[in-house]
Each structure stands twice: as structure tokens, then as C-alpha cells.
Description:
α2 packs across α3. Strands 5-6-4-3-7-8-9 form a seven-stranded mixed β-sheet, with helices on both faces. A two-stranded antiparallel sheet has the order 1-2. It is of the alpha/beta class. The protein is globular, with a radius of gyration of 16 Å. The two termini are 28 Å apart. Helices cover 26% and strands 36% of the residues.
Amino acid sequence: xxxxxxxxxxxxxxxxxxxxxxxxxxxxxxxxxxxxxxxxxxxxxxxxxxxxxxxxxxxxxxxxxxxxxxxxxxxxxxxxxxxxxxxxxxxxxxxxxxxxxxxxxxxxxxxxxxxxxxxxxxxxxxxxxxxxxxxxxxxxxxxxxxxxxxxxxxxxxxxxxxxxxxxxxxxxxx
Length: 174
């Protein structure tokens, strides 16, 4: 099996000149790549004491659910506003161009639960910071955040200072 980096397609000058887009769909479209990505992300949880996995729509679902299944842990979805049927808590946060809003069910996290957040990518860290605030607002404790890819040039880790952040692949640029 080839290294995980070789499964990621890099597309120059997308969405704008000078940016290299790291395409996770090329990992998902290859059975070996998907298997390796899940295994490598799951390996970052060795020795971590936690109760539940949380992941955002939609790629956090893709990686978080198989890891939750493999480790026999519950999976809690975080969704875009208006997608969850029960009482929710929400957070609005800033994006590079505008704002977004995330929600989760109010009863999804119990007081004192230890939570792992799983997503495909950390860029500026804004989405992950918002998820941490949602979890902590319900009384959960974020014990780790795991990403398949990190765009370290965007310094997302700075927003998550004080949290255990790991990525499988780190790209130096944006």
C-alpha cells in the first residue's frame, strides 16, 4: 500500500490563483486510501480515554462514523442550521467570507463526557473552535481533535491552543 499522501489529489490554482486545493474525494474513491485514512486517524486514539466521537457535516461523518463503529463508541453529528429534528444548541462563527452556523442536539453530550472531534481538514481552525464551544457549552470535555489533513500555513492550531490537536498529513502552505 502506498503512503496516504499519495492518495490525496492536489489541484493547483483552485479556488483561486496560488492556492493548492487538497482533494479528499480522491482518498474516498480508492478503497485502499479510505481504509488507510480511517486506520491512521483511528491510530491517533490509541491510549486516549474518551466516551463519544463528534464530527461535523459532512466529511466529519465520513471519517468519524467508521472510527466510532470500530471502537464501539457513539457518534454525535454536528450539522448545518435547520437539519436536526430535536431541540438544538447552535453557534454562529466567522468564515473567511461571511458566517456559518452549526447545531447539535441539546441532549447529545452529557455533563462530564470526554469527547473526540474528528474531521477531514483543519485550515483556519474556525469550524473546530465552534464545535469545541458547542461541546463545552453542553458540559463535555474535548480531549482530542483529529484531522486527516492540515493546512499548517493557515495556523489553525493557534485557535485551538490548549487542546490536543493531531493531523495525519500536514501541508506547509494554504
